[in-house]
Design a protein that fits this description.
One of its GO terms (molecular function) is phospholipase A2 activity. The protein is an alpha+beta fold. It has helices spanning 156-169, 174-191, 198-219, 221-224, and strands at residues 2-6, 16-28, 35-39, 46-50, 55-66, 71-73, 75-79, 82-101, 145-148, 151-154. 31% of the residues are buried.
Length: 233
C-alpha cells in the first residue's frame, strides 16, 4: 500500500506523519520548487540547497515508530518532484523526520538519534603515507577533518577504518564504502549539537568527502590491490 502526504509551503518539514498499514509514503516537493533536493549514496539522507546552491538543510534520519513500539528506519530517495520514504514492510504508526536547518534558525529541529559513539582511530592502524597502495594515509583525496568557524569534526577514524576494511577485503568493497559513509556522518552528529546549524553543513561536507574518496578508490582499484610476484625461474 502507498500513502501520499503534502509538505507545507515553507522551508520546514512536519515532525511526524501518521501512516496506516503502508510501506511507502510519497511527499510532494512541488511546493518547494525554489529548492534543490539531492539524495545521497545509500538513500539515508537528502541535502537541500537553494537556487544559488547554498545549503538550506539536511533531512538526515527518517524512521517509523510502530504502535507496538518497534522503530524501523526508512530509505529516502528523491524521484522527480517527490520525496519517497520506503520501509521494508507495512507500518502502522508514526513516521518521524529529522530535519537539520543550516540557516542558523533554530525554530525547527526534530528528535535526534539515540546516543551514538565517536568513531576513533583503531589502535592497530598504521599511518604511513609512504606505504604503497594508499591504504595507510587516512582519506587520500579529502581532508581529515571538518573545520568551519573553529568548530572541528575529526574524520581520521572513519578514514582509517575504511583503509583497514579495504586492506582486509583485498578489493574495493561496497560494504566498506557504506560503513565509511555512515561513520563520517556519525562523527558529525556526535561532535556537533543538533541545534548547531553547522551540523547540517558537516553532514553535507561528509557527502562531498565521501564521494571524493570512493571516486578515487574506484579509479585506482587495480593500483591499490596490485600483487607483485617474482617471475618464475
Amino acid at each position: 500500500m502507498v500513502q501520499r502526504a503534502a509538505l507545507p509551503l515553507t522551508p520546514s518539514f512536519p515532525e511526524t506523519i501518521n501512516i496506516h498499514h503502508s510501506s511507502e509514503i510519497f511527499l510532494d516537493l512541488l511546493p518547494w520548487n525554489d529548492f534543490n533536493f539531492t539524495g545521497n549514496f545509500n538513500d539515508s539522507s537528502v541535502i537541500i540547497t537553494d537556487k544559488e546552491d547554498k545549503l538550506v538543510g539536511v533531512i538526515d534520519y527518517v524512521y517509523a515508530q510502530n504502535y507496538d513500539g518497534e522503530r524501523i528506519r526508512a530509505n529516502i530517495k528523491v524521484i522527480d518532484n517527490t520525496l519517497a520514504i520506503k520501509f521494508n514492510k507495512d507500518i502502522s504508526g508514526e513516521v518521524h523526520l529529522e530535519y537539520l536547518n543550516a540557516t542558523g534558525n533554530d525554530n525547527l529541529w526534530l528528535p535526534s538519534y539515540d546516543r551514538e559513539s565517536f568513531i576513533d582511530i583503531p589502535k592497530d592502524y598504521i599511518y604511513n603515507p609512504r606505504i604503497y597502495g594508499g591504504l595507510h594515509d587516512y582519506c587520500t583525496w579529502s581532508p581529515d577533518e571538518f573545520n568551519v568557524l573553529g568548530q572541528r569534526v575529526d574524520f581520521r577514524g572513519p578514514c582509517a577504518r575504511h583503509d583497514m576494511c579495504y586492506e582486509k577485503s583485498h578489493c574495493r568493497s561496497r560494504r566498506c564504502d557504506s560503513i565509511l559513509h555512515e561513520h563520517l556522518k556519525t562523527n558529525c552528529r556526535v561532535q556537533l549539537n543538533p541545534l548547531n546549524p553547522l551540523r547540517a553543513t558537516c553532514l553535507a561536507t561528509a557527502e562531498v568527502y565521501f564521494t571524493a574518496v570512493v571516486s578515487y578508490q574506484e579509479a585506482d582499484t587495480k593500483t591499490l590491490f596490485r600483487v607483485v610476484t617474482k617471475d618464475p625461474q
